Amino acid sequence: MLDLALPKGSLEEQTLLLFKQADLEIRKTDREYNPTVKDPRIRKVKILRPQEIPKYVEEGYFDLGISGKDWVMESDSDIVEVADMFYSKMGEGIVKIVIAVPNEKDIKSAKDIKPGSRVSTEYPNLTKKFFDKLGIPVDLRYSYGATEAKVPELVDVIVDLTETGSTLRKNGLKIVDIILESNTKLIANKKSMKDPVKRKEIEEIRILLQAVLEARGKVFIVMNVPEDKLDAVVSGLPAMKRPTVSKLYKSDYYAVETVVSKSEINILIPRLKALGAEDILEIDITKIVH
């Protein structure tokens, strides 16, 4: 059985939703940091700050965890990256650690930052490595949150995580460089991955979680098509691979089914109708397993 660490904070809500949709519902109790899950593969669940999870997984306190690539690299944790999990608080899960300065500063890239500048960040290790590589000595100040609020009175530069950059812009800051692109990761302890039983359980959990993520933004459509319109409909139909086509019993109609992007369905359905498709059904998908 697996001990599992899940992230608290901005990723928490979406992580709990992901597990619920994967039929691995995490149920919170009065003990907020110690929820439960009814699954024979999971013994214990703990909700912790994502900054802490990679090291705890490396040290064997947990077999499996979810955290960001940024925190794996910041903590220099020696773990197994089981899978990319493209989700976040706001979108598809690609975030960036950026360097930002006040708009009025004549700085176009990190190379323009003056030696000795005060830099506030929650990522001191990654920030130091970045500026060391540029050969620019800076005065690093660890930030305990609300990093964007510290300029210009307390610091000159900030290094912060952003998904859209909107918070930085609202605070009169501009992005001048990117240290790292990050996304959510499913990570595992190396020893656990060498255990055949635990490795099998980890793989099964991975399949369920990624099946949910794969299904997001997609729908299943089914339609009936007369034989003389079949080629036209199929040629106008996007598909993950190829659509499934089967002849209806004692009929000159065919049933056509496939998976398409939800974002294009509002354009696709009228087009298919015009091409001759009938009885079109749109069905939500909960999981896709490749």
TrEMBL record:
It comes from Candidatus Methanoperedens nitratireducens. Pathway: Amino-acid biosynthesis; L-histidine biosynthesis; L-histidine from 5-phospho-alpha-D-ribose 1-diphosphate: step 1/9. Residues 49-207 form the ATP phosphoribosyltransferase catalytic domain. Catalyzes the condensation of ATP and 5-phosphoribose 1-diphosphate to form N'-(5'-phosphoribosyl)-ATP (PR-ATP). Has a crucial role in the pathway because the rate of histidine biosynthesis seems to be controlled primarily by regulation of HisG enzymatic activity. This is ATP phosphoribosyltransferase. Residues 215-287 form the Histidine biosynthesis HisG C-terminal domain. Its cofactor is Mg(2+). Pfam families: HisG (PF01634), HisG_C (PF08029). GO terms for molecular function: ATP binding; ATP phosphoribosyltransferase activity; magnesium ion binding. CDD domains: PBP2_HisGL3. The gene is hisG. GO terms for biological process: L-histidine biosynthetic process. It catalyses: 1-(5-phospho-beta-D-ribosyl)-ATP + diphosphate = 5-phospho-alpha-D-ribose 1-diphosphate + ATP. It is found in: Cytoplasm.
